[in-house]
Structures are given as structure tokens and as C-alpha cells.
Amino acid sequence: MKFTNRSLRVVAVPLTAVAALLVAASAVARKPFTAEEQKAMDEKLTAAAKRGYDMWYGARADMANNGLACANCHPDAAATNPQTFPKFMPQFDRVVAYREMVNWCIENPQGGKALDANSADMIALEAYSFYLHKGIPIETGLQTRQTAGNTPKSARGLNVKGTGIGFDK
Amino acid sequence: MAELHDADRRDFLGLAGKAGLTTMFAQAVGVNLGLVDVAHAAKVTPFRFAIIADPHLYSPKDHVFDKHLEDAVAKVNGLANAPDFVFVMGDVSHHGELDQLEKGKRILGKLKAPIRSIPGEHDWYLDMGEGWKKNFGDEFWSFDHKGVHFIGLNSILVPDFWTKAGLTPQQRRDCFMPLNSPVPGLWGTDARQREWLKKDVAKLPTNTPIVIFTHSPLWDYYPRWNFQVSDSKEIRQILSKFSNVMAFHGHVHHTVYNKIGNLTSLGTMSTSWPWPYPPIKLPHPEYQQFRADPSVTTDGMGAASIGIGADGRGMVQYLPFEDSLPQRLTDGFKI
After folding, report:
1. B128 beta partners
2. Residue of B nearest to A111 (CA)
3. From residue B178, how far is each of A9, A157, A167, B186, B320 by CA, in Å?
4. N or C terminus: fewer CB in 10 A for chain B?
5. What residues form DSSP beta bridges with B206?
6. What confidence tens digit (pLDDT) does each residue in A64-101 have?
7. Could you tell me if the ipTM is greater than 0.90?
8. Distance from C-alpha of B209 to C-alpha of B313, rounded to nearest angstrom
9. What are the Cα distances from residue B296, in Å, to A68, A71, A109, B269?
10. Across the interface, do B179 and A158 touch by the CB < 8 Å criterion?
11. Across A49-63, A71-85, A152-166, B228-242, which has the greatest mean pLDDT?
12. Where are the domains of chain A?
């Protein structure tokens, strides 16, 4: 089919009108959540992350039979890399979800009782460690990132800012 | 424990910030290499020493970390070139309980070589070092051996925040349990040790090889996890006249290397668990250990063996339990 200049104009006019309507609509459209709704949801998430922080540092005694807590090996949730799950883990010989790895740590190095994978406490542990890894690239493999994700900006008991002292060199 | 770590308590104690400022405003210290006396090399008879760090023993009988420490003892005892000493880098116990310290002394007593030790924060704050000193001796010390001057310092001291806050000994101790606890502030040595150190090294020739042990590193590695000695610049200044200062530390539970002027700093693997690396650019990433495999319970842990040559320089070899390190760290490198 060969368009003439006239036929293009015929098509173009209605499209321009539709685009203008869309722009106008988006300018007046309600955001997905109001500021109040967003604040309420953030508070719920922060509460879960704080519960996760407490558990990370040993608040639930049945998560260990030897005194160890998640934080023994993972200060600031370092080297947990939750964003890289699901992934293959050699000790499972299959692809696992992050919560399965959390339970593996609870049962093995900590010698504790695995959490119900869908429980509020498991979700709290996930909330804490994912919170500290927002924006971190996804990498996989045993040699993956072995450091902390984001320095916490707010969490109970943690510095709001890093010391910034850095190296002497 | 959680209520001790809330922001209100931290603000009330108000120590973390002050300690940080002290370090931030500390004057930069240069290293006076001009004082090095290379013409008269110190007479050193070659020998070897070993390092065992951070056993973190818990109270239960046959706890998994007991076995790790026994493995380290066996590894050191099995060295072809026997060490003259074994230095224990602190945190023998996890909670500072007497039974944990005594268990540590018992297991370390199986070493063929004599031990010298420095305290870690886990050993100290339940009873302010009483149990540790009873089992392991002086908190800071020095001695000469075959031409080398050895120094051990107590680098985990902070100003008293507990008396005014009315904390029990257990609460005080618990303030030091999390690596990122903001309550105690940055720790270091103290004026008493600095004065002692100045006198201790005053008459030593500048070409004397120095080996110094502190629980935490003598540089600002990552203060958020207390990976520093708050007065490290003053300590380095006191030692700046020497041609070669070899500094070893525990606390970080991984291999890490830095060189600041005449001082080479090396972190040692623990026998309990490996810490991850902090989120900073390492000055020498080639000394980094591999990401530990959590399914291998002793991966990322081990001990170290250091030979001192006739030239007064150290040959450092890490002794990992597993295949946790780049080959050059197990083959050995000179400092």
C-alpha cells in the first residue's frame, strides 16, 4: 500500500488527538498510592525489617542451639546476596529460594529449628536482608560478592551514617 | 539485648560520635624514613612463630568451635619448622565467661610452643579482663627474641559508658557482641600503653625488626565494624623510627593486607567463622580470601606461620583448613 501525503495527514490527526488526551489524563490521574498510603506501607515494611534485624542478632532462641546468630557470619547482612536467589546451591543440588537458604543456615551452622517458610518471622528476615541490598546488581556463583550491600540508613541500633573515616593512606 | 541498641540509648550514651571525631581530627602522622639505619643491620637469628586468632569458644561441651581450635593447634604442632612461639590474637572466648577462657587455655595448652596472647573485646567486658588476665597474663607486653622485638597491646579499650548508664556486667558485655554495635564507640589502646610503648622502644636501634600484635588493625579499615585502633596514628608515630614494623591483627576474621610507610599490616583468619569483607575498596585486593562455602564448615578459617629471616624480614604463610586462599598466600610472601 502506498500512502499519499493526504492519507498520512488523515491518520496523523486522530493519533495526535489521542496522544494529547493521554498526556492530559496522566497529568490528572491519581498516583497508585497516596502519600499517606505509601507512608503506612513503608512503616509496615520497616517494622518487618526491624523484627528481622532483631532476629538476625539472636532474638529468637530456637533459631540456634549453639549461640550463633545470622549476624555472626553476616554483619549488615553482608555476603547473603538475597537478590541473587533463586539460584543453584551445591549443598541442595538444586535451585533454591532465599528462604530455603536462610533455613539451611538456621539448621546447619546454627543447629536450630527451621522457620515456617511462609511465617511472618521468615518474611521479616527477608525484609531485613533485602532492605540492605536494594539496587545491588544480581550476580551468581560461589565467588560472588562477599561484602555488605547498602550501609543501613535507618534500622534500630545501627549508625545512621558510616563513620566516613576510611583509609589512612 | 535489642533494647540496648536503640537509637535513644545510643544518643544518651553519646560516645560513638565523640570517638569518631577524635579519630577524624587526629593529626596526620608522617613516617620518618630518614631515621632508618640501614648501615648497621640488626643481628637476627632465623626462627618461626605461628598465629592463632579468634577462637570464640562457647560454653557447651563439644561445641563445633572447640574442634576448629583443636584443628588449628594440630596444624601448628604439625609444622615442619617448629615455631618458637604461638601468638593468640584475642577473642578466645565469645562471652568472656570463665569456663570459656579456661577451655581455651586447656586446648591451647596442647601446643608444643609457648603462647603469648592479647585480649579481644569478647574476652574483656564481662569482668573487665579479670578472667582473661588470670588465664593469659598481662594485657600488654614486649620481649626480645633472637634479634626481634615483639610487642602486644590491648587495643579494645573504650571510655567508661556503662557506669553512668547503670549497666550490669552482662549488659556491658552484650554491647560488644554485634560487630556493628554503635554503643561502645571506636576502641583503641590508651595513654597508659602509649607512654609505656614510648619508653619500651626508646633505646632500641632503628634497624631492630618490630613485630606488633593488636586485636584490631592498626589502620582505619572499617570503623563501622570496629576494624580499627582509634589511636593507631599515635602508635604508628611511636614506631616510625624503625625500618620494618610487621603488624598482625585478628578481629576481622579474614586475610587483609595494607602498607602504611614502614608498617605492614596483616589480618589473620579466625578459627571460628570468616567475616565478609566490608563494603570498601580494599587497598590490596590480591590478599583477599575466597568467598567461603557455607556448606564446608571450616572453609575460610585457619592459622598462620611466619618465618623471620636473617635479614629481619618476615615470610608469611597462611595455614587455611580448606582451599580458601589464593596460592601466593599459602606459598608465602615477604614483608
Report:
1. none
2. B64
3. 70, 10, 22, 13, 25
4. N
5. none
6. 988 888 988 898 898 898 988 998 888 899 999 999 99
7. no
8. 7
9. 16, 18, 10, 15
10. no
11. B228-242
12. 1-30, 37-131
Select the residue of A146, A163, A166 nearest B291 (Cβ to Cβ). A146
Is B219's CB within 8 Å of A168's CB? yes
Q: Which residue has the higher pLDDT, B280 or B89?
A: B89
Residue A168: alpha-carbon gap to chain centroid: 33
DSSP string, B250-293: -SS-S-EEEEETTEEEEE---SS-PPPBPSS--S-GGGPPPPP-
Do B2 and A169 count as a contact with CB atoms less than 8 A apart? no
Handedness of CA A90, A92, B291, B216 (dihedral sign): negative
Domains defined along chain B, listed by start: 2-334 (3.60.21.10)
Q: Is A157 in contact with B2 (Cβ distance < 8 A)?
A: yes
Class of domain A37-131: mainly alpha
Q: What share of chain B is helix, strand, coil (3-state, %, to 5)?
A: 30, 20, 50
pTM value is: 0.82
- B305: pLDDT strictly greater than 70: yes
Query: Residue B157 gets which letter from DSSP?
Result: B
A141 pLDDT band, cuts 50/70/90, is: low
Nearest CB to B293; choose among A76, A142, A164: A142
The fraction of chain B above a pLDDT of 70, given in percent, is: 87
Nearest to B223 among A146, A157, A163 (CB): A163
B261 touches A at CB < 8 Å: no
Q: Within B78-127, where are the H helices? A: 98-108, 121-124
Q: Tell me the residues of chain A between 104 and 123 that have a Cβ less than 8 Å away from chain B.
A: 104-105, 108-109
| A87 interface with B at CB cutoff 8 Å | no
